[in-house]
Amino acid sequence: MAGFVLEKGLGIVLYAPVDVYLDEEETYQPDIIFISNARLAIIEEKRIKGAPDLVVEILSPGTGYYDLRSKYKVYEKSGVREYWIVDPQQKSVQVFCLQEGKFTLDQEVEQQGAVKSLVIAGLEVRVESIF
Predict the structure, then answer these.
(1) 98, 85 contact by CB (below 8 A)
(2) I want to staple 79 with a disulfide (CB 3.0 to 4.6 A). Which of 4, 31, 51, 108 is the partner?
(3) Distance of alpha carbon 27 from alpha carbon 66, whole angstroms
């Protein structure tokens, strides 16, 4: 993802740990975030203040429920345009897109196949290359 974004000059990809403030009280550290060129102003010296365009969370046994429920709702409410949930146990990727203020499941691929980003034009990731 980062190489594609850099090559195309579309914005910036950052990896955890990066503090993302979606409101004044709560800090989140998504595994991967993408911020488009049009929204680079949300990057401050030591934090991101506002919703990234795309968030990727990689599930782990200790964070699965939190990523699937709590973070999902927060990212949706905050205006994250695209949310990828990567599940290493199932070898699957779910892509949720924000439509009219609500996430809808746009794609779900298990084991083999590709997911395409609607936010990062032209980005296609083979699921088997992740695992």
Answers:
(1) no
(2) 51
(3) 14
pLDDT digits (tens, 9 = 90+) for 80-113: 999 999 999 999 999 999 999 999 999 999 999 9
Q: Chain-wide mean pLDDT for the chain?
A: 93
* 79-81-87 Cα angle (round to 5): 110
The model's pLDDT over 15-37, given as tens digits with 9 standing for 90+, comes to 999 999 998 778 899 999 999 99
- 34: closest CA among 19, 59, 9, 56? 56
For the domain made up of 2-130, the CATH class stated in words is: alpha beta
> Three-state DSSP class for 70?
helix
- Helical residues (DSSP H) of 67-117, grouped into ranges: 72-78
Peptide bond into 52 cis (omega under 30): no
Those residues with Cβ within 8 angstroms of residue 106's Cβ, 6 or more apart along the chain or in another chain: 95, 96, 97, 118
